[in-house]
Amino acid sequence: MESQTPAPALLSVRASQFVILGLRVLTSIFLVVSLAILLSNVLSGDRDHKVHFYDFVPYRYMAAAIVIGIAYSLFQTAVTVIRIRRENHRSILLDFYGDKVISNVVATGAVAGFVMTAQVQKDWSELVGIDAYDKYIKRSHAADGLVLLAFACTFMLSVLSSYALPKKVY
C-alpha cells in the first residue's frame, strides 16, 4: 500500500489566523458602514411625511441581519485576536457552524435589501429625476452592496473554517 502524504498547507497556521482576522475586520467594517447608511437614509416628502428604513419590512430584516452579523463578527474578531496572542488552537466547531449561519443570515439580508430597493424603484418610478428620491435609491443600493461585500467575506470565512474541520476530526 502506498502511504499518502498530506498536501502542503498553502498558508502557515499563523498566516491563516491573520487572514481570518483581516476578513473578520473587513466584515465588521462593511456591516457597520452599511448600518450607518441604512439608519441615515431618509426620504423627506412633505413636512409631516418622511420615509425611513423601518417603514419597509425587508429593510428591517436587513438591519436585523446586519446587527447580528456585527455582533458575531466583533465577537469572533476578539476571539481571533486572543488566539493569536496566546497561540491557542481554534474552536473549530464554533467557527464552522457560526460562520455557516452568519454567512446565510448576511446573504439573506443583502437579498432582502436588493429586492426592496428594486421594488421601491418600481413603485416610485414617477419620482425619477427628483434629487431626494435619487439620493435615497443610491444610498439604498450602497447599503445593499456593502452587505453583499460583507457576505463575500463571511463566505470566505465559512470556507476557511470548513478546511480546518477535517484536520481536527481525523
From TrEMBL:
Broad class of the protein's primary localization: membrane
Q: Which residues form the Casparian strip membrane protein domain?
A: 17-153
Its localization reads:
Cell membrane
This protein's UniProt keywords? Cell membrane, Membrane, Transmembrane, Transmembrane helix
The protein's topology relative to the membrane is: Multi-pass membrane protein
Task: Indicate the transmembrane segments per the record.
Answer: 21-39, 59-82, 145-165
Judging by the UniProt lineage, the source's domain of life is Eukaryota
Q: Which GO terms describe its cellular component?
A: plasma membrane
Q: Is Cell membrane among the key words of this record? A: yes
Subunit composition and interactions: Homodimer and heterodimers.
The Swiss-Prot or TrEMBL record describes its family as follows:
Belongs to the Casparian strip membrane proteins (CASP) family.
Protein name as catalogued: CASP-like protein
